[in-house]
Design a protein that fits this description.
595 residues; alpha/beta; Rossmann fold; 5 domains; 23 helices; elongated
């Protein structure tokens, strides 16, 4: 039967020593006491398992006692719990730096003392077991194993109570240790984690992606990723930093990772995802079949098509059905950012790289690690950036602006453009070599007028989104006549034009049923005759008919805006000055009564 643990109590107050001796004796420990630091150091030997130490004592205070314990190699690893009424940050920080393992506040709580002593004694037992095991190992593996065990010991001591999840893996990428927060994130029991790989725990889909990242860590890289984990069947976004563990002989012996739960990223929000599979048109079904094939690969994709055809939605569709779906999805509109800032947005920059660069910034190529980066309107990139992007695609590495260190990433690039890149190449506005590098798997999106069967589905989807964006109380219906009117339009602005028209219709309908008269289309609408020819009065000239239609639209806009002329002008898509001229032209000067 194992002998009880020995604990040395150091306190200058007799009452405190007696209280602790009685409590520890009740818990089954053997105790000895010392009334001051010098007496304690005389008594303290390696046979003691733990020290309970007061801070404020005459002569030698608790800080000096700790310092001398840690400097004595025979007793330096004995766990020390400091019993103190001092609870300020500086005092605790000083104590930790000197080597204090834990704290107990006065007045003493018996349950707290018991828990903290048991925890540190278990750590001490683990340390002793590690030492015994290390001595038995063969000399050829002694240094690497000892270094890993030492790393594990430090890990247990320093991070067991951390809120961030922390894990350690060995050279074979098997979990060797995890803290309590990591166990909670993984939603598994500790025995089910230790000694296993990601493939064994989560399957090939996750395991293969993590192995790609961590294999690079074993080559010496520190890699930051954003990922999505399933916690109790719900997705949560996490950021993970992985870095190599080094032995004293400068060999990499494993991987350490720190995982922190993050707010849900906008780029993974389901509200931004289009339900493309619901589209019935043959053209879109063909496109989606190609997109699903692309999703099963890691190849570069080039999306082409007119502005507003939904290239960004298709890029997201491909990402969500790829092996990278757990990783981030970022998009950059190359046409919406000045040329002088585009390089920093893509590649990032170091502090001091240029005026205003006060700190290091990670570019989108780094942020998209393990995921997908969409470069929309890639034809707008300057020739200089086109060359740098080509180099990146060939090597998957780059340097930040103002930096020297090569950074390697693992991302999938999707490029999109509304330009004819063949013509751009022919006219030397786009690099031929970059075009060939991007054009591995091209997908051309059809015009909206080429897939009018999708309009009812699109209308339903867009109305739901607009209702949410505009804060309307409920989702209104769209009448069949309104849908027919939308289906007859030629849609030069594609889906983007449809969205704008529906937003205007929601305003005009005040959130009620959307009727044909709420659908205000452009000049390219394929308009059916409003009446049969025999119903048109012969004495009604064209200018009169146009004026009446114009007046009706203006009156409807005024009613919908509660006679706010600036808002009415916005509904009609014209400036308030043009609207004022129209009011004078048709003779509306005193306003109009709202409905």
């Amino acid at each position: 039967m194992a002998s009880p643990n020995r604990i040395l109590i150091i306190d200058d107050e007799v009452q405190n020593r007696v209280l602790l001796e009685e409590l520890l004796a009740f818990l089954g420990y053997t105790t000895e006491s010392a009334s001051g630091g010098l007496e304690a150091l005389d008594k303290l030997t390696a046979e003691f398992d733990l020290v309970l130490l007061d801070v404020l004592m005459p002569g030698m205070d608790g800080f000096e006692v700790v310092r001398r314990i840690r400097e004595n190699p025979q007793i330096s690893d004995i766990p020390v719990i400091m019993v103190t009424i001092l609870d300020d940050k500086d005092t605790r920080l000083r104590a930790v730096k000197l080597g204090v393992n834990d704290f107990v506040a006065k007045p003493i709580d018996s349950l707290e003392v018991r828990v903290r002593i048991e925890s540190l004694l278990k750590m001490k037992q683990a340390q002793d077991a590690i030492k015994r095991h290390r001595a038995e190992l063969e000399e050829t593996v002694k240094e690497r194993t000892a270094a890993l065990l030492e790393s594990e010991r430090r890990f247990k001591t320093l991070v067991e109570t951390a809120r961030d999840g922390i894990f350690i893996k060995d050279w074979e990428l098997r979990f060797t240790d995890v803290n309590a927060a990591m166990i909670k994130l993984l939603d598994k029991q500790l025995p089910d984690i230790i000694g296993r790989t990601d493939e064994e725990l989560f399957g090939n889909h996750i395991g293969v992606q993590n192995k790609k990242v961590e294999s690079r860590v074993l080559e010496g890289q520190t890699i930051e990723t954003q990922e999505t984990l399933l916690y109790k069947s719900l997705p949560i976004a996490v950021g993970c930093v992985r870095f190599p563990l080094w032995s004293p002989s400068h060999d990499i012996i494993g991987v350490c990772g720190i995982v922190r739960e993050m707010p849900v990223r906008p780029e993974i929000s389901s509200d931004d995802q289009s339900r493309l599979d619901d589209y019935p048109s043959e053209a879109m079904q063909y496109i989606l079949a190609k997109a699903r094939i692309a999703g099963d690969t890691d190849t570069t994709i080039l999306l082409t098509g007119e502005s507003g055809t939904g290239k960004d939605h298709l890029a997201r569709y491909i990402h969500d059905r790829s092996l990278r779906s757990r990783g981030p999805f970022y998009g950059l509109n190359c046409a919406a950012i000045p040329h002088e800032l585009a390089e920093s947005e893509l590649f990032g920059h170091e502090a001091g790289a240029f005026t205003g660069a006060v700190r290091r910034k990670r570019g989108l190529l780094e942020l998209a690690e393990g995921g997908t980066l969409l470069l929309n309107e890639i034809g707008e990139l300057s020739h200089v950036l086109q060359g740098k992007l080509l180099t990146f695609l060939d090597t998957l590495s780059f340097t930040r602006v103002g930096g020297e260190k090569k950074i390697t990433v693992n991302i999938r690039l999707i490029a999109a453009t509304s330009r004819n890149l063949d013509m751009e190449v022919a006219e030397s506005r786009f690099r031929k070599d970059l075009f060939y590098r991007l054009n591995i798997f091209p997908i051309h999106l059809p015009l909206l007028r080429e897939r009018k069967e999708d309009i009812p589905v699109l209308v339903k989807e867009l109305v739901v989104r607009l209702v949410s964006t505009m804060g309307l109380p409920h989702t209104p219906e769209v009448s069949l006549d309104a849908l027919r009117r939308l289906s007859r339009h030629s849609w030069p602005g594609n889906v983007r034009e449809l969205r704008n028209i529906l937003e205007r219709a929601l305003i005009l309908s005040r959130g009620g049923l959307i009727r044909p008269d709420h659908i205000i289309l452009g000049d390219t609408e394929e308009k059916p005759p409003r009446e049969s020819p025999h119903h048109i009065a012969r004495n009604n000239p064209l200018n009169t008919a146009v004026g009446e239609t114009q007046r009706a639209l203006i009156e409807e806009a005024l009613r919908a805006s509660n006679v706010k002329t600036q808002e009415a002008a916005r509904l009609l898509g014209i400036s308030r000055y043009a609207f004022a001229r129209l009011l004078r032209k048709i003779g509306i000067t005193g306003g109009i009564r709202p409905k």
